[in-house]
Write a structure and sequence with these properties.
Order of helices and strands: HEHEEHEEEHEE
Number of helices: 4
Radius of gyration: 16 Å
Oligomer: single chain
Length: 182
C-alpha cells in the first residue's frame, strides 16, 4: 500500500495488539458506492499512523460508512460532525462569506478533522494526540475528494442542496444565489 507521501505503509503486528477492535468492522447503510468508500477509509487507516477511525456521513448527519473501533458509536460521531460543520459553515459565511472546506478540532487527546466531501457529505477523521496534523491533511484531503466524486452521481448537475445552516450549495460545493428558506 503506497501512501501520498511516497512511503509504503506496512502492517505491524503491534497495530492490532495495541488497538484491539480498531477498524475490525466497516459499517454502512447505502449499497452502491459504500464498498468503494469503505475501501478508501481502509486505505486511509493504512496510511495514517495514530488514526483512531473515520466516518463518512451526509451533511444532515446520516451515517454512510464508518471505520471506527467498537468503543465509538459511528452514528453519534456522524451527527456530531454534521452539527459542527453546520455551525462552522454559519460562522464562516457570517465572517468571510466564503465556502467551508474543513474544520479542525485540536485537543490534548488528539484531533478531530471534518472535511467537506462535496455538497452533501463529509469525512470525519479522529486521531490520537501523536498524529501529525500536516500528514493527516496530506492523506485525508484527497480521500474526501474521492468520496465527493463517488457520491456525485447521486446529485444532479444543477440541483442545489440546503445545508443544516440554511445555505444553498450547488452540486460543485459552492454557494449559490438561492435565498434562504426556513
Amino acid at each position: 500500500m503506497w501512501c501520498r507521501n511516497g512511503r509504503r505503509r506496512s502492517w505491524r503486528a503491534d497495530d492490532l495488539e495495541n488497538n484491539p477492535g480498531r477498524g475490525d468492522r466497516l459499517h454502512s447503510h447505502q449499497e452502491p458506492p459504500t464498498s468503494e468508500i469503505e475501501l478508501r477509509l481502509s486505505e486511509l487507516r493504512q496510511c495514517l499512523p495514530y488514526l483512531i477511525g473515520s466516518v463518512v456521513a451526509s451533511s444532515d448527519g446520516l451515517l454512510i460508512a464508518s471505520d471506527l473501533p467498537e468503543s465509538i458509536e459511528p452514528t453519534g460521531i456522524a451527527a456530531l460532525a454534521a452539527a459542527q460543520l453546520s455551525l462552522s459553515l454559519t460562522f464562516v459565511a457570517t465572517t468571510h462569506g466564503a465556502d467551508l472546506h474543513e474544520v479542525v478540532i485540536d485537543s490534548g487527546a488528539g484531533h478531530v478533522v471534518v472535511y467537506s466531501a462535496g455538497p452533501t457529505a463529509m469525512l470525519t477523521v479522529v486521531t490520537a494526540a501523536d498524529a501529525v496534523l500536516g500528514r493527516v491533511h496530506l492523506e485525508a484531503r484527497p480521500v474526501a475528494g474521492a468520496i465527493a466524486d463517488l457520491l456525485a452521481p447521486s446529485v444532479g448537475s444543477t440541483e442545489t442542496v440546503m445545508t443544516g445552516a440554511g445555505f444553498a450549495l450547488s452540486s460543485n460545493g459552492s454557494r449559490s444565489n438561492v435565498p434562504k428558506t426556513y
